[in-house]
Specification:
homotrimer, alpha/beta, Aminopeptidase, Glucose Oxidase, domain 1, Arc Repressor Mutant, subunit A, 8-stranded mixed beta sheet, 4-stranded antiparallel beta sheet, elongated, DUF4910 (chains A, B, C)
Chain lengths: 445, 445, 445
């Protein structure tokens, strides 16, 4: 173990920001929804990096209180005016069509058209993102300024969509560790051309899974790429007996912008994942926001429903709904950047590093301090006002390693970065001043 | 239950502020003390509204460490100067005579008179309120300016009072609910012409008891109108075996001014009444003060003595002793107003509403969220930034209804008004998404 | 007990500040280290006041992970220039020689000399205090300005020191109380001419032990005067079976300056000593600092090591390392003053007073308040706005004396000074309103 890199250190080698950005950019143009060929295309893109299992769940399958809906696909869609000019075209941006719009082909008045158009009057140049999965309807989305510019007259509306029996697709990848205990990492894949929400999360987790290949880990890591809500519900319904293995979990979304970071705690509020993320964000050099659990958000809603109550939190940069680009055409590739993606990635790698290395040591000389100086571990010249700082991690670890505190517990009480505590503990362990708790299996990298 | 008014909603119908004020004004002129005909007259006035039981406890009765004192009545009292002019007259204000003054009829010097006069030098135009229940003495109270204006000479002092064997009077009214569990509402009736302290409290509770007549409630409501300290002690001594039924309680005093509101917690500090009042006051739109228990105040001192330790708090607008009018002649009808009384009344009605309706539901679909949209319960158009707010109560209730959280627990954790949580829960219940806990008897209005 | 002085009151009689200062000044010039004749001379000076047991532990004795080092003594030491002028001389200040310097007598260049000189560039007129107990080395300490003024050339360096087999000396004094439960008071005696750190602590505890002689106390008081770290470790190793008697403890250092006061909690964080010091400091009229435990500081590091975890905190005025004079020649007799020493002494006397008198009483009339007025215990005239304050201690004691709260618990919840609570409880006890808990042995003064 001495001198070897930890799991977390191995994960961050290379140039993760550029690679994550490139993959996000690659899947950005695809038209996704909660079902359909865009989802499959996205999953196949992920599979080009990792050995992803792609599951297809037929329309009509009952999953708890829900039913897998018909599959939706769009061939083309546009609005044309009387002079034949296309006002908006699905080919330009898949945001122009409300997701799950039923087929339509009619000439209608401007007044009627306005009944089927969503805009953002406060952000008149942006196109909103809208869905109507479970209420049969059709609509277009466009900039408010464009709608305002339309003159009276009749318009041809065409949505050549398909809502028919098919299946819901999701992808799953399991990195097997030394134990059955799992860390769940989940990203929704149902949003169309929105870069931050959630091409960023899909790309980050794909890269993480890829980097994890071949690493020895204590935990098993389950990566889930599924449509929001119905996808997580479907997965939970099909894996009800397995969720007991989930010891930690993160929903990952909107991780490419420069805001936050933001962590929303699990419903439990004091799960280890909650404590670890709070610790990392406190030491991350940015201005983090730690939120208590609330039942609104992403798929942590399902993982934290009372019948499961899993220790799964939500990691984001900016908080959903809190930036003006949210759910608009401004959530494009300009909103995300390799540096931000890399920072988000490092935070998750550090989370993994803490959980993998959170050992309980026992001080082998619990009565009084051991003589560190004799072992060359301590500033040799006493009386120096400044020597104290450098030795604090050693003193804290020795003082608290009474068999009840893990390294993470110590890092929290001492308010020291975990990595410093881990490295110092390894030094003390090598010097025989710490022993592993007998009843604990070794956790190695 | 659907569409029916709750207990709290029924209680606030009509024009409570005006009615409470009118009754406070009616009993304001009466000379009350801890015993005597003024107390009886006040109790009879209450009995003209509700079916009050009036109890008489003879002088000399032992009540715990105390003995019911002689009964005190005053026929007339005044100070007259040598020219026959009355300086102060009990007929003008019963505050002019210290309560429980022994009889006196003498001519005395100004110097000696000053030994028997209380004034407020810092508030020279006001007459203070003073008592000497258990130390034999006599005194007058008057404005400091008036005392200063008196010239040397001799003065005739007359207090034609009576301190003799009689009884202590108190009134009690029980509204019977579906259970034996009681909510105690207690107001002291021993203060003479002080409008806020406590004609306001007596009138508010009288109106509440009147409005409660005929309502079906879960709890039984015990209204106690008794002299401060000795009255509460007497009641506790005579009802020692019954107090175990008291699940919640409020002492109500000084509820007619525009200050506060103020809530002083019970000795327990975390009783349900403490949590409920804190919740209501936090959402009441005024600037509330929540005080920890202290053993100084009104009759919560007795209810919260260590041998009883009942969950009884103190509800007031301004805190006792914290306004300049406190215990002076300025605590008159100008200090109280129908609007303030109505607001105080509504706060107590809301307290009752929460306690009556604090049900524990169970989410019937605990695994993942139920599909609200299918039931028409959810904003049908996804992606709208603002739809979230309206649905939060539903999501919180479903998430927390795991059998351990009551509606009030949910309102607290979600920081939502209880009424919204209650109404939303009823909606979910009607839709089959919530069930009552099996072991719980229904609580209806 | 009535009218008798408490232990704490007896301890503060006389003129403690002047006496403590005089003794601190007497031992200030002695050259101390962790061993040697200076330590012995200091212990003999203490023994001139109290019946101190002086222990000698031979060089080479194993104490837990440590070994008692050789004994160090210095006959003379200086630096002389080519013209025979002494640059620094141990005879002027024992700070000029790094503690535990090995013998040396050589002529060396200025460049080489600088390798063996410590200065404080930011405090150029002060001489630092430095030690090298366990790494063989030699060095001088001097003002930076003096070092800068030295011209090139050769210098004669002489340290006529002795590092040879001998012993480590420490002193111990036990004041026997009525019980075996101990209060440990510990001061380090290893610092040379530093007045605050720790002539002040040694002198304070010597005075305290002297004043305690002949007093009847509940606790036994163990005073320990030992070199820092190795002395505390040696004492713990030789008294391992006895430490279970230690119920409270304080390390006392730097108690003569005008800063703070500062209290660093024991590792437990909620020991009675931690709560009591926090209470006293909150009411002491100065601006206290309460620190959580950390494993850096004085001998609380050893007492609070995980194998002992004793309830021992650290009491100081200014916090170590936080004042510019710390570990420099400016920590001289000008830094400490009789008034500050007296204040520190009173704080420790008050600590003892609380612990000696922290009785659990039981209210003999737990149901409702007892009638205090009848017993002359209560303001006889009701209605006075200001009477409340004076009676609060009585009301709090009666309300909380349910057998679960000690007087100190009551003082904390009521936020009243302990002395007021104690005196008031004695008054109530004399009046039969409080009884001692049956299962408790009397604690008398």
């Amino acid at each position: 173990m001495n001198g070897e890199l930890t799991v977390g250190e191995r994960l961050v080698r290379g140039n993760p920001g550029e690679q994550i950005f490139a993959f996000a950019a690659k899947i950005y143009p695809i038209c996704r929804s909660i079902t359909g060929d865009g989802v499959r295309k996205t999953l196949r893109a992920i599979r080009s990096h990792i050995d992803l299992d792609i599951h297809e769940v037929p329309t009509g399958t009952e999953v708890f209180d829900w039913i897998v809906p018909p599959e939706w696909n769009v061939r083309e869609a546009y609005i044309r005016d009387q002079r034949g000019r296309k006002i908006v075209d699905f080919a330009d941006s898949n945001l122009h069509v409300m997701s799950y719009s039923i087929p339509v082909h009619r000439w209608i008045s401007l007044a009627e058209l306005k009944q089927h158009v969503y805009t953002l009057p406060d952000q008149p140049d942006l196109t909103p993102y809208r869905t109507s999965y479970y209420a049969e309807n059709w609509a277009f989305c466009m900039p408010h300024r464009l709608l305002e510019s339309l003159s009276d007259g009749r318009y041809e509306v065409v949505i050549d969509s398909d809502l028919s029996s098919g299946s819901l697709s999701y992808g799953e990848y399991l990195h097997k560790g030394e134990t059955d205990e799992e860390f769940l990492l989940s990203a929704h894949i149902c949003h169309p051309s929105l870069a931050n929400d959630n091409c960023s999360g899909v790309a980050l987790l794909t890269h993480l899974a890829k980097c994890m290949t071949g690493l020895r880990t204590r935990y098993s890591y389950r990566f889930l790429f599924a449509p929001g809500t119905i996808g997580a519900i479907t997965w939970l319904a099909r894996n009800e007996g397995q969720v007991k293995h989930i010891k930690h979990g993160l929903v990952v979304s909107m991780v490419g912008d420069g805001g936050g970071p933001t962590y929303k705690k699990s419903r439990r509020g004091d799960a280890e994942i909650d404590r670890v993320l709070a610790h990392i964000l406190r030491h991350c050099g940015l201005k983090p926001t730690i939120l208590d659990f609330s039942p609104y958000g992403y798929d942590e809603r399902q993982y934290c429903s009372p019948g499961f109550n899993l220790p799964v939190g939500l990691f984001q940069r900016s908080q959903f709904g809190q930036i003006p680009q949210y759910h608009t055409s401004a959530d494009n590739l300009d909103l995300i950047a390799p540096d931000h993606l890399a920072k988000s990635y490092r935070i998750i790698a550090e989370t993994i590093d803490i959980l993998e290395n959170d050992i309980v040591y026992r001080n082998t000389n619990p009565k009084c301090e051991p003589q560190l100086g004799r072992r060359g571990l301590y500033g040799a010249i006493g009386g120096d006002k400044d020597a104290a700082g450098a030795n604090m991690a050693m003193l804290w670890i020795l003082n608290l390693s009474d068999g009840r505190n893990s390294l993470f517990d110590i890092a929290e009480r001492a308010d020291l970065p975990f990595a410093l505590v881990r490295k110092t503990a390894q030094l003390l362990h090598r010097n025989g001043l710490l022993a592993r708790r007998d009843d604990e299996k070794p956790r190695t990298t």
